[in-house]
């Protein structure tokens, strides 16, 4: 299986199901996957609580935050599971 977006590559992501905004059921945490391989996580009124790079292998996502920590998550049955939380894709 090929890694779609290695950290720090210049490749632009255009055709994946996970791009966009994912939110917890209460809407407090919003996680946005951007086509340039960056992510931004908003918490409540803080629109930039966390940000960094992500890399995708199949349904698995690995993070490298700008502060240096790493994390991971998985897409399972239309939901995104990350750090003990469940996110659902925001629709327009």
Q: What does this protein look like?
A:
By secondary structure, the chain is an all-beta fold. The chain has one domain: Uncharacterised protein family Atu4866 (Lipocalin), CATH 2.40.128.290. Helices cover 0% and strands 53% of the residues. It contains no helices and eight strands. An eight-stranded antiparallel beta barrel has the order 1-2-3-4-5-6-7-8. The protein is globular and about 35 Å long.
CATH architecture: Beta Barrel
Order of helices and strands: EEEEEEEE
CATH superfamily: Uncharacterised protein family Atu4866
CATH topology: Lipocalin
Shape type? globular
Q: What is the number of domains?
A: 1
The total strand number stands at 8
Instruction: Report strand %.
Output: over 45%
- Order the strands across the largest sheet as they lie in space: 1-2-3-4-5-6-7-8
Low-confidence stretches: none
Amount of helix: under 10%
* Biggest sheet descriptor: 8 strands, antiparallel, barrel
Question: N- to C-terminal separation?
Answer: 31 Å
């Amino acid at each position: 299986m090929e890694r779609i977006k290695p950290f720090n590559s210049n490749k632009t992501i255009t055709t994946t199901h996970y791009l966009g905004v994912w939110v917890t059921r209460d809407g407090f945490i919003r996680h946005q996957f951007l086509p340039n391989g960056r992510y931004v996580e908003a918490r409540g009124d803080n629109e930039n609580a966390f940000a960094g790079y992500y890399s995708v292998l199949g349904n698995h996502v690995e993070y490298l935050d700008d502060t240096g920590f790493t994390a991971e998550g998985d897409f399972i049955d239309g939901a995104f599971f990350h750090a003990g939380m469940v996110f659902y894709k925001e629709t327009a």
